[in-house]
Give the backbone structure.
Amino acid sequence: MLLNLNTITKKYPGVVANDSVSLQLEAGQILALLGENGAGKSTLMKILAGLVQPDDGQIRVQGETVTIRSPSHSRQLGIGMVQQHFALFDGLSAIDNIALGLPQLPRAELRTRATQLAHTYGFKLDLDEAVFALSAGEKQRIEIVRTLLGEPKILILDEPTSVLTPQEADQLFEAIRRMAEKGHGIIFISHKLDEVARLCDSAVILRRGRVVGTCDPRETSNADMAAMMLGSRLPERIDAEPRTLGQTQLSIQNARSVQGDAAISTLSVRAGEILGIAGVAGNGQDAVFALLSGESPASDPESLRWQEAAVGGFDPNRRRTALGWAFVPEERLGHGAVPHLSLTENALLTNLADPTFASQHWIHWGQVTHTAETIAADFDVRHSGLHRQARSLSGGNLQKFVVGRELLKHPNLLVINQPTWGVDMGAARRIRGAIQDLARAGGAAIVISQDLDELFELCDTLCVINQGTLQPPRPIGDWTLVELGLAMGGQLHEGAA
Amino acid sequence: MIQITRRADVTAVHSLLSVAIAAVLTIVISTGVLFLTAKAPVDALSQLLTYPYQGGTIMVQWSKALNMAAYLGVMGLGLSICYRANVWNIGAEGQFAMGGIGAFGTWLLLGSPTAAWAIPCLLIGGALAGLLWASIPALLKTRANTNELLTSLMLVYVAAQTLFFVSNGPWQAPVRYSPPQTIVLPETVQLNAMLTGVPTFHAGLPIALGLFVVIALLVLYTPFGYRLKVTETTPRAARFAGYSPAATVWAVFLLSGALSGVMGAIYLLGDIGYVTEESNFLRGFGFSAIVVAFLGRLHPVGILFAALLLGYVAGGASWIQANLREDDSIAGFIEVIALMSTLASALFLQYRVTWRGIIAQTQESP
C-alpha cells in the first residue's frame, strides 16, 4: 500500500473541509478524486503537500505513519504534485526552470535524465525553449518532468486537463498510464466524468468534505457518478408563496462578448422570474456576468433585448439608469466595493449616474449618507461606523451591504453572481429572501451560483454554463439530477436544443 | 523570523506615525551624509536649516523657497492626479517647457502687444500648449496602448530640442546672446514683483496658490475626485461604476498637462522673461514634481507640505554653496532620501511587521 489516509479531519471556522476522509492508493493504481468545488479536494491535497496539518486522522506512506511537516518533507516522502496553476518563470528556458526545482543535480545529468524521461513518456519537449513561447500543454510537461525527476512514488495531478486541448489531454492520459505501469501510484483530481471513466481504475467521490462513495469508473455509469457527486437527490423547492410570472422582459439571442470569452445562445427572463445559472467554478461565470452588466458589451447590440429595445451596446451605467438593472458581482472587495473607501463612499459607487446622488460637479453627500444608513438598517449590516473602510467589514456583512445597495433601487432586473459565497447562514437566508421579495414584486433576477441547493431554493428556470457557453434554460422541474451533473461536467444532455 | 501582515484598517494614527518615521529617517541619513561630505559640516547644517536668517535679505531667501514650492506644488498636484488614476505621466518637464514656448508663441501671434491684457492670454496659451503636449501620450495610450511612461518621458527631450530650435531659429533675438535666446518680453506683460527688491515674489505666486486650491478642492470633494479614489486602488470597481478607462486617461493627462503648461507660462512671465535653450530654461521642476507627488502620498495636503519642504531645502543648498563653498547637490540628495524614506515607511502604514520565533512556526503539528 503506497498511501493510506485514515479518517482525516480538517475543520475551518464555520466549515468542516474534510470530515473523516479515508482512502487507499496502491502502486500502479490510477485513483480519481471526484467532487464539486468546495467538496474538500483542495484541502486534502494541501494536507498531502504538507501545507496544512489535519486536526485528526492518520497518514501512512508506504506503511509508515507520518506527519507531513512541510512541502519539502512531502517531497522527501515520495509525494509529487503537479498543480493546476503552473509555477514557472516565463523568461527562463525549460531546462532552467527544471534546474531551479532541483538545485542539487549537476546540469549535464539533469539534461540527460530530463530527456530520458520525456522520451519514456512520449513527451515532445524542447528543453532550451523559453517558457513564454510554449503552449499550456508544453508548460505542463515541464512541470511533470520536474516533478518526476524528484522520483516520487505517488504522483498527484490537480485538474490537469483544464488547460489542455483534447489532443494534448489524450497524450497526457497515455503518459499517465505508462507511469502507472512503472509502479507509480496516481491520484487524478477532476470533476470531468468522461475523463475519469476513460483513465482511472478507481474513484473516490467527495461531497461536502465527506467520502460519499467509491466505485470503479470503468463499470459505473457517468450518470451514477454524477448522482453521487451532487448528492443522492435534488434539493427540494422551498419557496412558500408561488410567484406569478409576467411578460418576457429580457431576451437574448446568440450574444457574444467583444472579447469572445462568453456566449449565450438563447435565454429569456420574464417579470417575476428568477433564472439560475449553474456551473462548476471557473467556467466563465465572470465573463457572462460582465456581458450582462455591460462591463464587456455584446459584439452585436441587437443580441440583447429589453422589452424589445436593443441594449447590447449599453455600458453599465446606461443599463442601470435607462433600464433599471442592478448588478452584484462575485468579488466583493475590489469589484462590488472599494476596500479603502468608507461604507458611505461605497454607497455611491453604483449610484453615480443618478442625479439625486451626484451631479456632474457635485456629490450630494446628504443623500449618499442617508442611503448608506438605510442599507445598513434594512439589511442588518453590522458595522462599527459608516466612516470605516469597507474592508473592515466581515464578508457576510459586506455582501449584505452590496446586495442592499442594489436592491434598494428596486431594480427591474438584478444580475447577481455567487450571492452567498463565503457568507454565514443568517446572511445567506437574508440575501435569498431579498431576491425572492424582488421577484414577488415583479422584478426579474438572474442568479449565477455554484450552490445547487441555493439555485433550487430560488429559481424558476435553470441553465448550465460550461466553458463560457450558456446552454438554453429549462424549467427547474424538468431537470433531472443526472442531466444536471452531465451538463455541468461538459456533456450536453439529451434533448438539448 | 520577521512576519509582515496586512493591517485590516489604516487609521490616522498609523498615517502620522509613518510620516514621523520618514522624517526621522530623512534627517538622520541626510545629516550623516552632510557630515561625511561637507568641509565644515556643523556650519553647513545650521545654515542649511536657518538660511533665511543668516545675513541675507530675509524676504529674498523666503521668497526663493516659496517660488520653487509654487512650481513643485502645482505640477506635483497635477501629476498626483495621474498617478491616482494609475496613469504614469513623467513628462511634466516637457509639458512645462511647451507651456513657456506656447506662451511666447501666443505673444507673437497677438502681434507682440505691450499692454497688460496680454498676460491672461499668454497664461491660457501656455496652458493650451502643455495640454496639447500631454495629449500626445494620451492619444498613443488610448489608441495604440503604448506605455505612457516611455512616451511622456521621450517627449521631454523633444520639448527640450524645441526650446533649442526656437531660441536658435525663428524666434532668435536680433541681438546675439550666448546662449541664444528670444527677445525679452516687455516689462508690461511680465508678472512683476509684488515687493520691491524681491523679484522672485511675483504675481505668479498667488495665481499658483489659487490654482492649487481649486485643484485640491476638485480632488477632495467632487465626483471627479471620487472617480480618482475608486480608480486608484481598484480599476475593476471603476469599470463596474461605469467609468471608461480611456476617458480617465484623457482627463488626467489633459489636466496635468495644462497645469504644467500654465506653470511654464508663469515661469516665462514671472521669472525669466524670454525663451532660451534647455540648459538655461529648465531647472528640473517637472522631475522634482514627481518626487513631490509621492512625498505627499498623492494627497493635496501632503503635496503642499512636500513642495514647501523641497523648496526650502533647495534654497538652503544654494545658500551654503554661495556662502560656504559647499556642494549644493546635497539638495538633490535630501530629495531622494526623503522619497525613499516615505516609500519605505508606507510599508508600516499598510502592513504590520512583527517578530515571530521560529519555534512557534513549526509547532503546528497535532
Observations:
- The first strand of chain B starts at residue 2 and ends at 6.
- The CA atoms of residues 295 and 343 of chain B lie 8 Å apart.
- Residues 245-272 of chain B form the longest helix (28 residues).
- The interface with chain A takes residues 8-10, 221-223, 226, 229-230, 233-234, 236-237, 239-242, 244, 362, 364-366 of chain B (CB under 8 Å).
